[in-house]
Amino acid sequence: MDFVAAIDELKETLGVSGGKPFSKHERETIYACAFGKYEIGEYENAANFFIQLILHDPYDIRFWKGLAASRQMQKEYKAALHAWAVLALLSGHSPTSHFHAAECYLSMEEIEEAKKALKMAEMHLETSDPLAKRISNLKEHIHG
């Protein structure tokens, strides 16, 4: 099943397939609310808002990043990994999703997968990226 078909099936399951799409203003308002919930530590509420946004616009990487981060903060690492994977597909060569996937794998004590994710993050890292230091620190933590 391809990505579009999977999103359509999810929309149908949740009963939003026939609904009116959110306007740009509505999406931005909901996004601000979701981001606010995340910022104050209400990760479950934030995740629910991000899911609604994804169902209406599955190609906006901000929504996937918000969902992934919310799930990771809830310690729902497998769910976070799924969202980080979609973000990696949508964002192209960004190291961010791979780095956070490594954090999830490490939290689940899947060290080899964490190493692979860090390697992917490094492959997509630009010279002056501030994430470089965090990647280095996580590698040191893994390798002792």
Which keywords apply here?
144 residues, Serine Threonine Protein Phosphatase 5, Tetratricopeptide repeat, 75% helix, globular
Could you give a quick summary of the protein structure above?
With 144 residues, this protein is mainly alpha-helical. The chain has helices at residues 3-14, 24-39, 43-56, 61-73, 77-91, 96-107, 111-123, 131-143. Helix 3 runs antiparallel to helix 4 (61-73), helix 4 packs antiparallel against helix 5 and helix 6 runs parallel beside helix 8.
Task: Describe the protein in words.
- The protein has 144 residues and is mainly α.
- The protein folds into two domains: 1-79, Serine Threonine Protein Phosphatase 5, Tetratricopeptide repeat (Alpha Horseshoe), CATH 1.25.40.10; 93-144, no CATH class.
- Helices cover 75% and strands 0% of the residues.
- The chain has eight helices and no strands.
- It has helices spanning 3-14, 24-39, 43-56, 61-73, 77-91, 96-107, 111-123, 131-143.
- The protein is globular.
- 28% of the residues are buried.
- The mean pLDDT is 90.
Describe the SSE topology.
Elements: H1 3-14, H2 24-39, H3 43-56, H4 61-73, H5 77-91, H6 96-107, H7 111-123, H8 131-143
Helix pairs in contact: 2-3, 3-4, 4-5, 5-6, 6-7, 6-8, 7-8
